[in-house]
Structures are given as C-alpha cells and as structure tokens.
Amino acid sequence: MNGSPDLGVLLRPRPASPLVEVEDERFGRHGVRLLVKRDDLVHPELPGNKWRKLAPNLRAAVEGGFPGVVTFGGAYSNHLRATAAAGRLLGMETVGIVRGDELADRPLNASLARCAADGMRLCFVTRSQYRRKAEPQERARLLEQARAGSSYVVPEGGSNALALEGCAELGRELRGVSDVVAVACGTGGTLAGLAAGLGPGQRALGVPVLAGEFLGAEIRSLQEAAFGAPAGDWSLAEGFHHGGYARVPARLEAFAADFEQRHGFAVERVYVAKLLWALAALTESGAFPAGTAVTAVVTGRP
Ligand SMILES: *Cc1c(COP(=O)(O)O)cnc(C)c1O
C-alpha cells in the first residue's frame, strides 16, 4: 500500500487554504472586519476539517500496517463520506458503522450511497448499540459484528488526539491574522485543535450546532488527551443551533442564500450557515468592539 501514488497526494502536507476579506455592511457598520478562511478548498475531495482530522489518522493507519479503517456516523454524516472518499483514494478498506438498524432495509440516502460507491462497507446497528459504542465491551461487539476487529478505529466525527494535532495546523495558519477565529462545532474537535494552534492574543470562538450542554467538558477532555493540558483561549457562543442538528428554519435558509448571493461562495447549511448567522448576530449585539477582526472558518461545502 505504501507504493500507492495516491498516498502521497492525500497525506502530503498541503499549502495553506485561502484567506479572504469579505465586505459586508452588517459587520462594517460596527467597525468589525470579517475574513473567511476557505478551508473548504484545502482538499478537492476531503473538504475542510474532515481532511485536517483524517489525514494524521490515515497516516497512522498506513504506517501501522492496518488492513483498513472503521468509523462511526449517522445517516447524513460528512465524516463517513470523507472517510469513504479517503479509502477510495488510498485503496484502503473502509467500514462505516451507521446509527439506525431500520436503515438496513431501506434504499440508501444520497450520502450513504456516496459512501457505498466509494467502497465503504456499511454496517447498520441499533440506536442503543450505537449510543454505547464508547464502552469497551460494546465497542468490541460492534467491531466484531462489522467484521472490522483488526481495523484502525477512528471515533465518531473523527475527533481524537491526532485529529486535534491536524486542526492545530489550521490555527497556526491563522497566527497573527485576526483577533477572533470562529468555527462551527459538532464534536468540538476542530475548535479544540484550532485554539491550540493560534498565537498569543488570539481567541477561538465555537458555535455549537447541536442543542446540549456537555460540549465544553468534551472539548476540555479532548485537549487533555491530545496536549496533556488545556490549550489556547477559547469559548462557546451558545444559542445558535436553530432547533438542533441539521435543522434549517426558513429564516436561516434565507440568510444563507442571501450570504451566497452577496459573497459568491456556497454556504454549507448544517454548520457554516449557523456560524455566519451567529457572527452577524453577535456583531449586531455589540459583542465585538470596533476594530476587531473576526475570521470565520469555512469548514466544508454543501
Ligand atoms: C464535521 C463538520 C464540523 C464539525 O466539526 P467538529 O470537529 O466535530 O466540531 C464543522 N463543519 C463542517 C462543515 C463539518 O462537516
């Protein structure tokens, strides 16, 4: 596998993703500068934070001689899709353990069909099995059921210590660039790594896209595992989940479509739209003093 030409292309360090200043009067009239870090352009097939998190894990899987990679996700998981694409590029077997055994008897949705087309073997498990996948015994049972007992295990959402190292590189690319660097959060792994890579005087701001109250503790324990201690200056801006994961109420849809019209790039709805909405709302409410430069990380594309 080490001789595969795609290995180098996929895992080689890539040039920094573009950073672009955006002219938008909703920010400008408050004296706030808005920049976008186009991390959706970091890799043609594994956009944004999915590439940042997966690349160091795939390198570890290849170097460790593992026969394949197994990971976990819901029916619409961007992480499953990215892992499947990586498997195709690397010529590596991938297995996806998918939440919801009822899905096994239905036609695959577009996201899972993409995974399957990329060669991922899908294994559907009950919601209660899925919920307990972090418990060692249940995990062993799941891996056996998926015939993936000897595969390299990447956790749900791809957030582990190596993933945080990959996201710290995103922070390093933004050193000295702005006062605040903001990112949408699912598992919080991207924020946890990003914060560690930023320079002195910069702070990271996370916008959770799911309702829930454990994310702060989760981020602290991810940083503990990756860096041995809390790292960087970060906080969460709560209250912008718009009803929960993947909920896109009409006013958020209108905001995102309008943002695309004004600024000419596609706004991913599940994460990036909520981030941009939150930054506009925080700016409007005076949360950023005049003179603040804010960078929004565009973590993916539709
Ligand atoms: C997966 C994903 C996220 C969430 O990243 P976490 O590290 O899990 O917080 C953010 N944005 C996009 C576009 C994603 O696909």
Molecular structure report:
Its cofactor is pyridoxal 5'-phosphate. The chain is α/β, with parallel strands linked by helices. The protein folds into two domains: 179 residues, Rossmann fold; 84 residues, Rossmann fold, CATH 3.40.50.1100. Strands 1-2-10-7-8-9 form a six-stranded mixed β-sheet, with helices on both faces. The protein has a four-stranded parallel β-sheet with strand order 5-4-3-6, sandwiched between helices. Helix 10 links the parallel strand 8 and strand 9. It binds pyridoxal-5'-phosphate (PLP). The site of pyridoxal-5'-phosphate (PLP) has 19 residues, from helix 3, helix 4, strand 7 and helix 9.
Q: Biggest sheet, in brief? A: 6 strands, mixed
- Tally of separate domains: 2
Helix vs. strand class:
alpha/beta
The number of E-state strands comes to 10
SSE sequence, one letter per element: HEHEHEHEHEHHEHEHEHEHHE
